[in-house]
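hey can u check if this looks right to u? its 173 residues, i copy pasted from the old doc so theres a chance i mangled smth
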Amino acid sequence: MAENSLLTRSVKWVVDALPEDTMFDVASDGLKFSGCKHRDYQMRITQPINPQFSIETSLGYSKGQLQWGVFSQKVSVYELSLVPRYQVSERLSLGFGMVSQSDVKFKTTQGLEFDLPSSQEWLASSRIHGIEEGHYWELMVSSKKWQTNQSYGNWFERGLADNKLTLSYNGSF
C-alpha cells in the first residue's frame, strides 16, 4: 500500500514538473504465487516536438525469482527504447527507432551464474487508430541482434539477427 502511494505521489510530482504537452506514464506489474515472484517496471515518456513529430522513450526493468526448497533462480534485465514518430495524417503515424536490452543476469543456488548477451533491436513501425480512443493497430518490422559470445553454437550464441514482421492491436478494454 505504501509503495503504491509513494509511486503515485512521485509520478504526480514528475508530471507536474514536465511541460503540459509531455505524456509521462509509469507502470508496475507483478506476478506472485508459491515459489515464484516476478516484477516489471516501465517508465514511458512521449515528448511532442511539433504537431507532426514526437519522440517516444521508455526505460524498463524486470526481475524474477523461482524458489523450490533449496533450489532457487534469480534473473534481471534492463531495457531502453527510443522511437522518433512522425504523424503522417490524423489516423496514421510512422516511427523508426531502437530498443537496447542489457545482458540478462542469471544466478542459481547451485553456483551456476551466467550472463546472457545484451541485444540491440532496430525497428520501423506504422500505427493506425483502432476501434476506440487510445487503441491502435501496429505493423512493425524489426531486426534484433545479440552481442556475439561464441563463434560456434546456435544462432543466438553466434549473434545472428532475428528479423520479424509483427501485426498487433493495442488497447485496454
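The longest helix spans residues 2-17.
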